[in-house]
Amino acid sequence: MLLESIKLENFRQFRNESIDFAQGIDGKNVTIIIGENGTGKTTFAQAFFWCMYGETEFSDKVMLNKVVAADLKPGQEAKVQVTLKLRHGNVSYTLMREQIYKKDYSGKVKGDNTIFDIAIKDVDGNTSYVKKSLCENEVKGILPRELSRYFFFDGERIEKMSKDISTGKKATDFAEAVKGLLGLNAMFAAIQHFNPKSKNGVIGSYESSYDAGSNSKVQEYTQNIENCQAQIAEIDKRLEELDAQIESASARKIEKSEEIKQYAEGEALQGKKEELQRKIDLAQGLKSSVIKAICADFNSNMSSFFSASLIIKAMEFLSDRDFTGKDIPHMHDDTIDYLLEQGVCICGTHLDEGSVPYNKVKGLIDYLPPKSLSTTYGEFRTESKHRAKTLADLRQLVADKLAIISQQDDDIIDLSDELRAIESKLSGGDVRGRVRAINDEIKLCDKIIKECNVERDAKNRAKGGYEESMARADSLRRDLTLLDDKNKKIEIYKAYAERIYQELLQIYTESEAEIRVKLEATINDIFKKIYDGGLSLTIDDKYHISVYANDYDGDVETSTAQSISVIFAFITGIIKMARDNRNASDENAKLLSSEPYPLVMDAPLSAFDKRRIKTVCEALPNTAEQVIIFIKDTDGNLAEEYMGDKIGCRHSFDKKNEFETVLV
Length: 664
What we know:
By secondary structure, this protein is of the alpha/beta class. The chain has 19 helices and 15 strands. Strands 1, 2, 4, 5, 6, 7 and 8 form a 7-stranded antiparallel beta sheet that branches. Strands 9-12-13-3-14-15 form a 6-stranded mixed beta sheet, sandwiched between helices.
């Protein structure tokens, strides 16, 4: 989208004014409109927004020029009209928004609803008109309202966006900007068309089209899957809400933690509180590791612990029994059985059953393997001594570790007492009310984050259960559907759709990651030109932007000028990438299709010093294909000096009175 011209009729203080914008001919792509404060720069800039979206940021919603309104007689009417001509794609658009105002017989001037018309001229010069009911959608296709703030913005909006950046807010908006402006929306829409979570999507329609006539179990499994999907959808919705609450509370905590440091006493107390909390966390961590070590030691010596009492009783029972010398070495009870069976001892004595020799020999069985009591007793005593020593070692280990735990408990109690004293000061009457209120809000943020994390963990566990149940039902249903020709076809079609979905998702993920890497490099290149201070930017997968010093490991607190430089770098970086992508000669080098977009800025340089105004003025015309700047006269002189060879159109405001300004 490149702007060709704009015409204002009775729009606020502009009775009949128009501008033809520089189109980049001979390299001149900058239009500059200079005026003192109060001459109508913001009003003229708002005319773009009113024409395209029917909205402005004026507190007074009456658009009609006050002189025209005053001259109306009862029953008469006058119109406000803004006509915007632009090029988008291969066609030219004429957007015209009109509002009729009437003066009633009580002297009040009231406006009707706006009328919006769009005319389109194609490459052959043929003109057609968009149906009124479709005009808003047509504008959305050119530049969605939610993305317009990146191209139509003023100094105040820049400062607000910079604050969002510095506190980590609005990352979703930045992600949407990248998708919309670098051509990812079409692929994202295709992914949503196949998304299995959507009942109205391709995969969802197949899910609901199985024929249960061949087997009642198919309907049962389908119902189970649908129930699981509904539960998962509810969980996902809640998880998004929880993530938003956590992000909001975290950003608020960061904001309030910085605010509390503005107070000298509050800053000192806050620092001491954080140090005490760190020590408590360290002590609790050490205590936890010692407890785990005790459990590990006990688990490895569990048998010795539980057998100790039994061993003691056994040893007491066997203490008055003597088995010494009763064993016969190298002889087995099979030998005794053999001698008794033969009836003759190895010494030649007859072993008649019931005789004394017979009974003597038979009695030896009790002292021979495998019934050797003395041997078994000896082994039992050895094992008992070993276990007793192990148990003694375990007791000592546990005692030593319990001493450590006791020390950590004492430390935690002492540190907690100190922490409560600090928190009491932060919340008590001896600290100014503002510090107390800020600290209470930080504690509330901590509570919200903790509760949300607990609920999120529970929701994720429940989601895992539903996913497992759904997968099981889907597997069982698949086995049944393959037995029926109609359902088999549905299963095959669904498999194709699922494969397409996965392929699209993979391509989108890879493309989006590639774009994010290039965007970070492009933004850094522009940022370093605008803000020369040894700083760089990083963009994570959620489009949170962090500033860090090149020779320092960690985030850097951004100043207003730094944050505004980030915004400029971000917006111009996206535009530059779109421009480079569009102009790439190698089709393989292009990411995805995108359109050119202008930058329309109201007082964008007011937050910068003279040196950075120069770098901004040099960077903007080289990154955007069209730049339109409404600027106050002091900054305008610098802008003309630094962008002189890029300026193709120049105007200034001449304020006639409080109700009329003309362009010269």
